[in-house]
Design brief:
The protein is α/β, with parallel strands linked by helices and 488 residues long. The chain has 2 domains: 292 residues, 3-Layer(aba) Sandwich (Rossmann fold); 175 residues, Succinyl-CoA synthetase domains (Rossmann fold, 3-Layer(aba) Sandwich), CATH 3.40.50.261. It has 18 helices and 18 strands. The strands form 4 sheets. A 6-stranded mixed sheet has the order 8-10-9-11-12-13, with helices on both faces. The protein has a 5-stranded parallel sheet with strand order 2-1-5-6-7, with helices on one face. Strands 15-14-16-17-18 form a 5-stranded parallel sheet, sandwiched between helices. Helix 17 links the parallel strand 17 and strand 18. It starts with 10 loop residues before the first helix and ends with a helix.
């Protein structure tokens, strides 16, 4: 297990100082050109050296006929060439002294016996020159913190805390928008492709040592180095959570994995056992993978699995209660003192049992601060799940009814929302208990967006919120067990 990030064979792949790029041209319809454009658009701060047999410049950069003509030895080579040219290009990189490469090009093991021979040649060249290769048949890496994104889609949002190692390239690039909309971002994301040299285990080690990564997510079609994978995972889970999505357990999944990257999948129950032995949280869908990551990367450790639910409508409260029960979470009775304190905030038609259903919210400040404060102070409550009906629509109507003109309305509305957001963001810090919201409205409404970016997860429905809370509880139980074993 690496002790420092710089010791990883992936370090200069994820954090290069200078790059040589094969396969970009001034024809923007080419994959290489699109990927080079992504690197430039994010503002990569090191030199980029395109290699092209004819062009004098490529996308405004001086082009070179051969890698041997470069003025220095780059940290990283990115190869997006026709399959038959890839091995020759890697050979030249080796002769130049380049020690790291991303091979994006496909046409290797995933195509069967003929492709297997090509991949063996690729691996032979890499070993001859001690080149650390990511791929082939991959999209490489995205490291927003290093301003490095050589994938076909431009980065959206801010750098984040989610690490990803994926045997599908699309998930490290097509998830940019999804993570941003759900209040997250990648720390570093790897696409391993066919794993000719570097593999899922190497990525797991890197992310385990990466200080920007709070939670590791894995998209798995098949694990080649099973013992090493388990050893590395066990070492990591005591320090940070790992969430895995395995898709090779069904017959259809196996066929898709084999044709995708040539991965050999195993029975679903074997992977289930492996994940349990390693302390890995298993997700059953891609949505769950990142739902769990959001909770695990933002919430304080829970003391138990007891949830208080707060709502101002009976249906959302009942839905949340049912979802919590199905997820294995408990809804405790509130302490008499808590019930007594709640009466000051609730109309006479409200329910003071759990879920706490206001039926009507008299005051936005009370709903988003006063009532949650009372519930979180209850020793019987470990977590709070709150129904988020954004107050913006009510604030806007209230201001208009008060005769506020449109010129002032937006400013006052913004001030009110900021104050409510600040009060709610203070709650998990004050009590060191998880606070999670759920809503059936857009996650892009202003207060919801501000809470997401401030570190309070908001989910599009109660079931997703409950499952994420259950995953959060499960990980901290696993972490406690791992620490106990280590001490013993």
């Amino acid at each position: 297990m690496i002790s420092r990030l710089e010791e990883s064979p992936l370090f200069r792949i994820a954090c290069p100082r200078h790059i040589v790029f094969f396969g970009a041209s001034n024809n923007f319809n080419r994959m290489g050109s699109i990927m080079l454009s992504s690197i430039q658009s994010l503002g990569f701060e090191g030199p980029i050296y395109p290699v092209h047999p004819k062009e004098e410049t490529v996308r405004g950069l001086k082009a070179y006929r051969s890698v041997m003509d470069l003025p220095e030895v780059p940290d990283l080579s990115i190869i997006v060439l026709p399959t038959e040219l890839v091995c020759d290009a890697l050979e030249e990189c080796g002769q130049k002294g380049i020690k790291h490469a991303i091979v994006v090009s496909g046409g290797f093991r995933e195509l069967g016996p003929e492709g297997e021979v090509r991949q063996e040649r690729l691996a032979s060249i890499a070993k001859k020159y001690e080149i650390k290769v990511l791929g082939p048949n991959c999209l490489g890496v995205a490291n927003p913190h290093h301003k490095f994104n050589p994938t076909p889609i431009e980065l959206e949002g801010r750098p984040g805390f989610v690490g990803l190692a994926s045997q599908s390239g699309s998930f490290i690039t097509q998830m940019f928008n999804y993570l941003h909309l759900h209040g997250m971002g990648f720390s570093t994301a790897f696409s391993v492709g066919n794993e000719a040299i570097l593999d899922l285990v190497d990525c797991l080690e890197y992310l385990g040592a990466c200080p920007k990564t709070k939670v590791i997510t894995l998209y798995i079609e098949g694990i080649r180095r099973g013992k090493d994978f388990m050893r590395v995972a066990r070492d990591i889970v005591g320090r940070k959570p790992i969430v895995a999505l395995y898709v090779g357990g069904s017959d259809t999944g196996k066929k898709a994995s084999l044709s995708h990257t040539g991965a050999l999948s195993g029975p679903d129950e074997i992977y289930d056992a492996v994940f349990k032995q390693c302390g890995i949280i298993r997700a059953r869908t891609l949505v769950e993978l990142f739902d769990f990551a959001l909770a695990l990367g933002t919430l304080p450790p829970p003391k138990g699995n007891r949830v208080a639910i707060q709502t101002h409508s009976g249906g959302p409260g009942a839905t949340a209660a049912d979802a919590c029960g199905r997820a294995g979470l408990q809804l405790p009775d509130l302490m008499p003192r808590t019930v007594e304190r709640l009466r000051a905030y609730l109309p006479h038609t409200a329910s003071t049992s759990n879920p706490v259903d206001l039926t009507f919210s008299k005051n936005n400040r009370e709903y988003f601060s006063g009532i949650p404060d009372v519930l979180l102070s209850d020793d019987q409550v470990d977590m709070l799940l709150i129904y988020m009906l954004s107050p913006v629509v009510f604030i806007r109507r209230f201001l208009r009814e008060g005769g506020i003109g449109e010129s002032e309305l937006e400013r006052l509305e913004d001030t009110a929302v900021k104050e409510l957001t600040r009060m709610m963001l203070d709650l998990p810090k004050k009590y060191r208990k998880p606070v999670v919201g759920y809503t059936f409205r857009s996650l892009q409404e202003k207060m919801t967006r501000d809470l997401l970016e401030g570190g309070i997860p908001i989910y599009p429905d109660a079931e997703r919120a409950a499952k994420a809370l259950a995953a959060h509880v499960r990980y901290h139980q696993i972490k406690s067990e791992f620490h106990t074993r280590h001490v013993e």
